[in-house]
Write a structure and sequence with these properties.
This protein has 334 residues and is α+β, with helices and mostly antiparallel strands. The chain contains 12 helices and 13 strands. The structure holds the ligand Nc1nc2c(c(=O)[nH]1)N[C@H]1C(S)=C(S)[C@@H](COP(=O)(O)O)O[C@H]1N2 and molybdenum atom (MO).
Length: 334
């Protein structure tokens, strides 16, 4: 994860959707969802046919249906949302290239439906699941989380999904399950970054959590953002969101979930364990070997409006998660 100097075009003002505009669109969508729910229209009806403007053209019907009934929750922050156009155009998804604009340019062909997730290891209900069978038993909720990359930029994103714990419980973890290991799709035909001879990391991308971290209510599996299905560049159709950890823990396009007894080796730890640890908890007083973590740039920013803010311990979620790490030396377990 190199820090690259970015040009001001990354934050063109024309790309910025105002929060009020987004909110009014959101209300429209809720209204549409309520209408759908009360009249029980067949999915082939003209009204359902109009849905793609709200949910995205490649959204499978089961997901479109669930997205029309998102429940809001208490998980909000008192900060402005990062505009949707920034969230979906300034990305890290090395499978599609290492420049921030590469994922949006190169990921649009990713086939996200049907999508299977292999569940293995220390679970009673191992097997290969259709994504919809994992998601449909639940209710989608919206969670507005701060999102802090190890590269010292941050966003505020309205994710849509379900708590990771609810999904993990479906698999009935055994008493030996002490960690959860996640894997991204490996498909060099669809993911040109995986075919590159100059790939800077090993594929498939692997991430992991301790079981108590994974079971924490804030750990979230996202299938959408801004009320719509996840765009490919943001990790469609299923990605992890762990708001108190650096962004690289939030693995995208998950095809495998394994419950393990031993701590999994993760991609960035393998690439450079001195710079990227397994825990990767956001911590302003533990610097990256090559830069300070004391502050962050809140996107969208520019040369003339850098929008620096102080980074907070556990990204501002210390009240919720600090007890997971009581007694641990956070400089040693970074
Ligand atoms: N498979 C995969 N997952 C990934 C990455 C990646 O390169 N490949 N990048 C990570 C990093 S470094 C960050 S900051 C976030 C970025 O998520 P976003 O593009 O949705 O903001 O995804 C994380 N998940
Ligand atoms: Mo990141």
């Amino acid at each position: 994860m190199l820090i690259k100097s970015r040009s001001r075009k990354d934050v063109r003002s024309s790309e910025i959707t105002s929060e009020s505009l987004w909110l009014s669109r959101r209300q429209l969508m809720r209204a549409g969802g309520a209408a759908l729910a009360s009249t029980v229209l067949p999915l082939s009806s003209p009204l359902a046919g109009a849905a793609p403007t709200l949910t995205g053209a490649n959204t499978p019907p089961w997901l479109a249906q669930m997205l029309s009934q998102i429940s809001a929750t208490d998980h909000k922050v008192d900060e402005a949302l990062t505009p949707e156009d920034i969230v979906t155009s300034y990305n890290n998804f090395y499978e599609f290239g290492t420049d921030k604009t590469d994922p949006r340019a190169n990921a649009q062909g990713l086939k996200v439906s049907p999508w299977n997730v292999l569940v293995t290891g220390e679970v009673r209900k191992a097997g290969e699941y259709h994504l919809e069978d994992l998601i449909k038993p639940h209710h989608l909720e919206e969670r507005v989380y701060r999102f802090r990359c190890v590269e010292a930029w941050s966003m505020v994103v309205p994710w849509v999904g379900i708590p990771l714990a609810s999904v993990l419980r479906q698999f009935e973890p055994t008493a030996n399950a002490r960690y959860v290991r996640f894997e991204t799709l490996y498909d060099p035909v669809q993911m040109p970054g995986q075919a590159s001879l100059f790939a800077s990391i090993d594929y498939p991308y692997v991430e992991g959590l301790r079981i108590d971290e994974a079971m924490h209510d804030l750990a979230f599996l996202a299938v959408g953002l801004y009320g719509k299905a996840l765009p490919p560049q943001n990790g469609a159709p299923l990605r992890l969101v762990v708001p108190w950890k650096y962004g690289f823990k939030s693995i995208k396009s998950i095809v495998k979930i394994e419950l393990t007894e031993k701590q999994p080796r993760t991609t960035w730890e393998k690439a450079n364990s001195r710079e990227y640890g397994f825990y990767a908890n956001v911590n302003p007083s533990v610097d990256h070997p090559r830069w300070s973590q004391a502050r962050e740039r809140r996107l969208p920013n520019s040369l003339f409006s850098p929008r620096y803010t102080d980074t907070r311990l556990f990204n501002g979620y210390a009240d919720e998660v600090a007890q997971l790490y009581s007694g641990m030396n956070l400089s040693r377990f970074y």
